Amino acid sequence: MDSLNPEDFKVTDKIKLSKIPTKLNIDTDKDQEELALDKIQIKLSKKQDAMYAHNKYAFLICLQGMDTSGKDSLIREVFKEFNPRGVVVHSFKTPNSTELEHDYLWRHYLALPEKGKFAVFNRTHYENVLVTRVHPEYILFENLPEIKSVEDITTQFWKNRFEQINNFEKHIAQNGTKILKFYFHMSKEEQRKRLLKRLETPEDNWKFSTGDLKEREHWDEYMDYYEEAINKTASEHAPWYVVPADDKGVARYIVAKTIWEELKKLTDITEPELDPKVKANIEVYRAQLKQ
Question: Which residues, listed in sequence order, are joined to residue 63 by a DSSP beta bridge?
Fold first, then answer.
């Protein structure tokens, strides 16, 4: 596990998802995966505390993937050692009536992390160039001036939207937010198994949605649009990582290690110095408390 290098999963050139494996050929078991993740969790927790006190950087972690690709469980496992005040998770559902009264990026701006904190977007602003590509009729709910019907949604419309997303990410990156984007690359067969498990395991029945089956019918379309989105928006300041997701333990480790490697690059992060006057009187304060 230690030999896995986040750079091997980073998108640095045009990709073809069909040529990227959804599972790595490595010899590990569940115990080894959990132990490797535990070690990184501890290091992440300590560094996050220092980052919170330092109060200059923020991290935006973007998670995208098909249904059952493991985003929810990854959030639980990777961030469970974090101080709760330093990480906030946002799961973006279908826009509500208030959100539809604003442009599509508005709700994502509102959810951006404060300095010193992590924000995890479970489904992200990329839904606006993924789900809406498969279901362009959803765009009509945005009540845009020049869009009266689906026929009005042109190639230029999507080109503009990608440009807007790139500008959004560039803007927040230039103002101190570190962006890491992860696509959970799962096979269609693995999704079938996971959906079946939800039906066959009583305590997991609640996770099953008929909507998952409907979206599964559009699998090939989603793969095309994911590929296009990744290729059009991968950048050095907002990189994409294509994470093999058929093995959840390996996927969690790759994400955790990627975050850790990026945190290590911020060598200026230090805990603030104690006020000199307080430092000079530590013994006095200690004596008072002992009394």
Answer: 122, 182
Nearest to 264 by CA among 175, 160, 178: 178
The answer to whether the beta carbons of residues 121 and 92 sit under 8 Å apart is yes
pTM: 0.92
Angle between helix axes 248-265 and 71-78 (nearest 10 degrees) is: 50
- Burial class (CB within 10 angstroms; exposed 0-12, middle 13-18, buried 19+) of 285: exposed
Give the 3-state secondary structure of the chain: CCCCCHHHHECCCCCCHHHCCCCCCCCCCHHHHHHHHHHHHHHHHHHHHHHHHHCCCEEEEEEEECCCCCHHHHHHHHCCCCCHHHEEEEECCCCCCCHHHCCCCHHHHHCCCCCCCEEEEECCHHHHHCHHHHCHHHHHHHCCCCCCCHHHCCHHHHHHHHHHHHHHHHHHHHCCEEEEEEEEECCHHHHHHHHHHHHHCHHHHHHCCHHHHHHHCCHHHHHHHHHHHHHHHCCCCCCEEEEECCCHHHHHHHHHHHHHHHHHHCCCCCCCCCCHHHHHCHHHHHHHHHC
CA 56 – CA 175 distance, rounded (Å): 10
Strands 118-122 and 87-91: parallel
- 83 and 48 in contact (C-beta within 8 Å)? yes
Query: Residues 229, 234, 238, CA angle at the centre, nearest 5°?
Result: 120
State pLDDT tens for residues 59-107. 999 999 999 999 999 999 999 888 888 899 999 999 999 999 999 999 9
